[in-house]
Design goal:
By secondary structure, this protein is α/β, with parallel strands linked by helices. It folds into three domains: 20-230 and 442-452, Aldehyde Dehydrogenase, Chain A, domain 1 (3-Layer(aba) Sandwich), CATH 3.40.605; 234-423, Aldehyde Dehydrogenase, Chain A, domain 2; 460-509. It is built from 18 helices and 18 strands. The structure holds nicotinamide-adenine-dinucleotide (NAD).
């Protein structure tokens, strides 16, 4: 393991808390912003996204400075997973939002002949975005922009651990409409609870299942809809016909990017018998080459843990596994005493009785398990309370897809890892305790809207047959219409047209 000297990492910003009065005032201003936004077009709102994209490209080094200082992540993780990911999402919005949010024409059935049907995608009003600390820039900006482009005012509560204080305000000042539509509320869970009390039109929460439950309970009182993006325990399944070198390198990165503090990081590695020993040996060799460092300029592979309580979870899981018979092939401790840099840790001889297999880790641990058959690995790897994403590695494309279909999770990468998240076209979200609702893609964008169904008829003198008065004759004709429409016959449409004409004539008669 290459371990250059550690540098001091800055302390977090002083803790702020938004008061009840400030929360009320913020929502009142957001309601006014929402009214303003209703009068704007998607195209007008996208102007701000274009300006913001250019601004982020220009200021990317300063942004990376701030992200790395607050999170301790290595600089490459900040540049690639946070900044590049945001730019990709901006670009996607610029090219696709208008089309996805445009009014849609939909067909009208024969029973409603002559009318037109439309779906309008309208903003919700003021939405509340509550974010975690692991990707404070990416999760914050992508959720805020998606909501804003749909025409919503946004109240955003960053994690108190990584508030990036002042950064979003400064970036959003590139465009007056964007600046006046987004409100940042700093504080802890107490602030979040105060914001929920203001009854946002919808809550978009990314964080732990534990907090997700609390938010749902509070939101239920006010019937506020909630989308939940929660934790994961993602499996990588490596078949013996996989390209070994690629699978090792992929799993290594998937488990360790952001020091393992990703909701969709690889937390369980299942390797088929035939290549198990070679896989473990190669993985160990690759781990030992990694550079763990702080304050790097882009040349370190891993940064540190962002918070001490997360480090405690990692330590506890390793201690528990060790006590129950797991073998630690490399790592198993921090880089230096009293530092938040936990070494990438390879564990074998793990089983389901261990905490490392049951709970989300959110740290740089790589537990490797052996499996024999396809059916076995599907069963054992699905046996978890989480279902966020997974990866399947195999030279047999048909088998890989067959296995992917049976994994109980929201996303699967085949012969790659965590890559569904990199494509803004693909919706992201989980099953089971990993939450529900989807971010990104057309489905995710439409989650920030509500559909309004519209049926347009001519301003004619026609009286609809189903309107009053109800007569015996009409009743009989409607009964004939059901026979004509829903009994198989080559003359189905002709019969329906004849009955329809009779119904229209009957509708004109006064009682
Ligand atoms: P967390 O649940 O502790 O906190 C998330 C946010 O919720 C913070 O802003 C926090 O202040 C707020 N909060 C705390 N108590 C609250 C309450 N009672 N009501 C309302 N809000 C409250 O999560 P975290 O530790 O910041 O993040 C790590 C978790 O997030 C992990 O479980 C990780 O897997 C998950 N995560 C999921 C995704 C995803 O897309 N599925 C992405 C990133 C992280």
């Amino acid at each position: 393991m290459n371990t250059p000297t550690l540098q001091d990492v800055p302390t977090f910003s002083p803790l702020l808390e938004t008061t009840e009065e400030q929360a009320r005032d913020m929502f009142a201003r957001a309601a006014r912003a929402s009214e303003r936004l209703r009068k704007t077009t998607v195209e007008e709102r996208l102007h701000a996204v274009k300006k913001l994209l250019d601004h982020i490209v220009e200021r990317r080094e300063a942004i990376a400075d701030m992200i790395t200082q607050e999170t301790r992540k290595c600089r490459s993780d900040a540049l690639v997973s946070e900044i590049l990911g945001v730019l990709d999402n901006c670009e996607w919005l610029l090219h696709n939002a208008q089309k996805i949010l445009a009014d849609k024409k939909v067909p009208t059935p024969i029973t409603l002949l002559g009318k037109k049907s439309r779906i309008w995608h309208e903003p919700l009003g003021t939405v509340l975005v509550i974010a975690p600390w692991n990707y404070p820039f990416h999760i914050g900006i992508t959720s805020i922009l998606a909501a804003y482009v749909c025409g919503n005012a946004v109240v955003f509560k960053p994690s108190e651990i990584t508030p990036l204080q002042g950064l979003f305000e400064s970036l959003f000042s590139v465009d007056p409409l964007l600046e006046q539509s987004v409100f940042i509320a700093y504080g802890t869970g107490t602030t979040a609870q105060r914001l929920i009390e203001q009854k946002p039109a919808k809550i978009f929460f990314t964080g732990s299942a534990r907090t997700g439950r609390k938010i749902l309970a509070q939101a239920a009182e006010k019937l506020i809809p909630v989308d939940l993006e929660l934790g994961g325990k993602d499996q990588a399944i490596v078949f013996s016909d996989a390209n070994l070198q690629r699978a090792v390198k992929g799993v290594l990165w998937g488990a360790l990017t952001n020091a393992g503090q990703s909701c969709s990081s690889v937390e369980r590695i299942y390797v088929q018998d035939g290549i198990y020993d070679q896989f473990v040996q190669t993985l160990k060799t690759e781990i030992d080459k990694l550079v763990v460092n702080a304050g790097d300029t882009g040349n370190a592979d891993l940064g540190g843990m962002t918070v001490d309580f997360q480090l405690d979870i990692v330590r506890k899981q390793v201690d528990d596994a060790r006590a129950k018979g797991a073998k630690i092939l490399t790592g198993g401790d921090v880089l230096c005493d009293n530092e938040l840099f936990y070494l990438p840790t390879l564990l074998t001889q793990v089983d389901d009785s261990m905490l490392v297999m049951q709970q989300e880790t959110f740290g740089p641990l790589l537990p490797v398990l052996r499996f024999s058959s396809e059916e076995e690995v599907i069963q054992v790897s699905n046996n978890t309370e989480f279902g966020l994403s997974a990866s399947v590695w195999s030279g047999d494309k048909i088998r890989a897809e067959r296995v992917a279909r049976r994994l109980d999770c929201g996303a699967v990468s085949i012969n790659n890892v965590m890559l569904t998240e990199a494509n803004p076209w693909l919706p992201f979200g989980g099953t089971k305790n990993s939450g529900y609702g989807r971010q990104k893609g057309a489905e995710g964008l439409l989650g920030y809207t509500r559909s309004k169904s519209v049926l347009i008829d001519a301003n004619s003198a026609k009286i609809e047959p189903n309107w009053y008065p109800y007569t015996q004759q009409k009743y009989n004709l409607f009964s004939q219409l059901i026979d004509a429409l829903f009994r198989a016959s080559p003359w189905r449409l002709l019969k329906a047209a004849l009955v329809g004409m009779k119904l229209e004539a009957e509708a004109k008669r006064e009682r």
